[in-house]
Description:
With 407 residues, the chain is α+β, with helices and mostly antiparallel strands. Helix content is 17%, strand content 20%. It is built from 7 helices and 13 strands. The strands form 4 sheets. Strands 6, 9, 10, 11 and 12 form a 5-stranded antiparallel beta sheet that branches. The radius of gyration is 22 Å and the shape is globular. Residues 182-184, 186-192, 226, 228, 230, 247, 249, 292, 304-305, 308-309, 317, 319, 338, 340, 353-354, 360, 374 line the site of protoporphyrin IX containing FE. Protoporphyrin IX containing FE binds at residues 182-184, 186-192, 226, 228, 230, 247, 249, 292, 304-305, 308-309, 317, 319, 338, 340, 353-354, 360, 374.
Amino acid sequence: MAELPRGIYWDKGQTPPRCHATAILRADQNATAAGIDKALLALAALWNQLRVGTLPTLDGAAVPASSFEWLLGYGRKAFEIAGSKHPVPRKLRAPNTFNSVDPQGGGLAIDGSGLKFDSGIAQNQATEQFCVQFTGDTPLSVTRAVVETSLLLESMRDAASGKAPLLVSASFTGFNREDRRSWLDFHDGLSNLRSGDERRSVIETRPQGLAKSDKWLAGGTYMAFIRLRVDVRLWRSLTNDMREALVGRTKISGCPVVAIDTAGMVTADPLCPVQGTTEVDADPGNARFLEPPDGVDGKSRLSHVQRANHHMAKHRIYRQGYEFFENPTLGRPFEVGLNFVSFQENPDRLFFMLKTDTWLGGTNFGGAAGPEVLHVVAGAVFACPPIIEGEAYPGASTFSDAGPLIA
Ligand code: HEM
């Protein structure tokens, strides 16, 4: 029985916990399947301890579990490790890939999209062999997992060579805002998919449509992780009408924009929000305004929500993102942004959305050739195999000598 990996909050009654961390794990260039299997076995045991609230270093003292979950992702390079028993999954190959960063920083992140790498980064730190997503209720629950993961992997260094099969090469943290808004000040996640079956059907990879060599991924999902810096200074320099036109919703209420005149003045649905309410997500009477409407004028169609949602079920994705804040340092002011996280049964859905002209293709966030408010700091797509009873960790058939549990 294959079960969807944990840490994806798709079911009715579930809400993603407030805190998030993604650690990127890089394999040593001489690592073998046996070495990686040993490391992942040890990591899975550690992460399962954190789930139930125990840690050997604390000698049995209670460790609050804080809804902690872990989710292991396999990047394209994981399947290039010597002795891997599965080839690179077809959906992790071109064209579902990120470009490399220009040697001098920046450059187009995804062909056909309007997303560029940040000029200040020289390497895309997410394109390593594995990632692990930690979610939990408290900052401690997710940062402790990064610390324990790093220390455990470092303890596996070979005494003679100093090399370990796997090490944490980067980690990124994030949180959910209690006002359910992003750093753009607008509500985010208003029109995310309904929890339950609708969400699950978008997330879960089905055996049909998978190449024969990728059938082992059925019941799992593909995760996209894109850390996007939001140029909040540029955003604040725009007029409110410009911002509402770019998002496709009004700032305070979240009501859908239906028309934009030649002077750039925005009109929202006049019936929204229902009398006695001020924000669309605060009252069930406003439920009909959560999906962006079809009957809008040409300029409104260029907004982010309209470009990202054409009401076509086969292109929808489930977004479970977390905001981030980075402290200012000498020579660099503070930075904010979104750890964009999406789950989809097939990454074609996301790449279609990002590359197609009438969708987000060619635009940075929205508009005809809108302002460059977003920059990619790191980004990659990962295969997240299902949980299978008897397997020590999801995807163990890739490295374990026990052989694949399902053909
Ligand atoms: C990889 C880049 C991104 C993609 C593919 C993407 C995709 C989407 C999708 C699919 C929707 C929902 C449309 C719908 O179903 O109605 C949406 C809405 C929205 N997104 Fe994005 N998004 C991206 C980046 C961002 C960033 C970085 C921010 C802000 C920091 C952002 C803010 C919003 C807002 C405010 C909404 C409208 C609220 C809502 O309807 O949920 N998006 N986006």
